[in-house]
Write a structure and sequence with these properties.
This protein is α/β, with parallel strands linked by helices. The chain has a single domain, classed as Aldolase class I (TIM Barrel), CATH 3.20.20. Helix 11 runs parallel beside helix 13.
């Protein structure tokens, strides 16, 4: 077992998942504005520090993805944020892409940028305490999209990123997100997601990435948000498992799903169903942002100094997600706080 494989398994094993707290300052400002809390560096730190020092961190959260501002911050007692995360047995990670821009040659699609200077940034992040990283490629779905150009360009960027991350001694999370926006069916999502994931692994192979030291962060197979044909949790689980079984090499240690616009209960119920049916050999867990934080953020916004109450809300959500990562969640448990 390599060091990178050990890190990946430490993050994903025993029902643990990943807290995606890597919102950029602009995104976090939107989230805080939505609950009428002023977005300044102190308030952003206070909310995150509240979550990172909650009791569920040691039982449920194997890794936390941070943003550049957060990984450099110190807590109120002088510890760095990575030190606080490490103290619960969890690992600090870092988002290293620099966001999306219009893809030249396909004006409606996006390309993720950030490869320039990445090697140097990675060395800096390692010194700051990061042991894994994240890069997100974004893919539209429609009759014409994602285009070959988008699939090829974003898959290549994900593979170049992953190779550089492993060179720096960290585990890359590979996140090819096929968006929920649109009126496509689940079958369309299945076909397009399969093409995207297949191409990603072709590029990872070309770039000599050690798959045993990676984590895949895909979307679940879902109908578009505007699709009239909605399907059951069971069908979502079956299609998602079929897609991953066919397209993800067996060397990959685990898969941590993004929530991709699902609400907290949907993301939990679908993950639970996936794990009840999981016959793939992959660990299947979560890497959620809003689906872990939203209820806690709403509660916190009423009194930003109510640390214990906020932590109780977050702990409940993390516990539900971890039960779902083991196929042990049920809706009845949601009400037993």
């Amino acid at each position: 077992m390599t060091e990178l494989n050990k890190i990946a398994l430490q993050i994903l094993s025993n029902g643990k998942g990943i807290l995606a707290a890597d919102e950029s300052t602009a995104t976090m400002t939107k989230r805080l504005d939505s609950v009428k809390v002023h977005s300044d560096e102190n308030n952003r730190l206070l909310f995150r520090q509240t979550l990172f020092s909650s009791s569920s961190m040691s039982k449920c959260i194997g890794g936390v993805i941070l943003y550049d501002e957060t990984i450099r911050q110190k807590t109120s007692n002088g510890k760095t944020i990575p030190e606080l995360i490490n103290s619960s047995g969890s690992l600090a990670g870092i988002k290293v892409d620099t966001g999306t821009k219009i893809l030249a040659g396909s004006k409606e699609e996006k390309i993720t940028e950030g490869l320039d200077g990445l090697r140097e940034r990675l060395n800096d992040y390692y010194e700051l305490g990061a042991r894994f990283t994240k890069w997100r490629g974004v893919f539209l779905i429609s009759e014409d999209y994602p285009s070959h150009l988008s699939i090829n360009a974003n898959s290549h960027a994900l593979a170049r990123y992953a190779a550089l991350v492993q060179e720096a001694g960290m585990v890359p999370i590979i996140e090819p997100e096929v968006l929920m926006d649109g009126n496509h069916t689940a079958k369309d999502c299945m076909n397009k997601t399969s093409k995207v994931i297949k191409k990603c692994y072709e590029e990872l192979d070309l770039n000599k990435v050690d798959l045993t030291g990676t984590i895949l962060k895909p979307n679940m197979i879902l109908p578009g948000a505007d699709c009239s044909e909605q399907i059951s949790n069971e069908e979502i689980a079956e299609l998602t498992l079929e897609c991953l079984k066919k397209n993800v090499p067996s060397e990959v240690p685990g898969i941590a799903f993004l929530s991709g616009g699902q609400n907290e209960i949907e993301a939990t119920a679908n993950l639970n169903e996936i794990n009840k049916k999981n016959n793939t050999g992959f660990i299947m867990t979560y890497s959620y942002g809003r689906a872990l934080q939203q209820s806690a953020l709403k509660f916190w916004s009423k009194d930003i100094n109510n640390i214990i109450g906020t932590q109780e809300i977050f702990d409940h959500r993390a516990k539900m997600c971890t039960l779902a990562a083991q196929g042990k969640w049920s809706k009845n448990l949601e009400n037993k706080k």
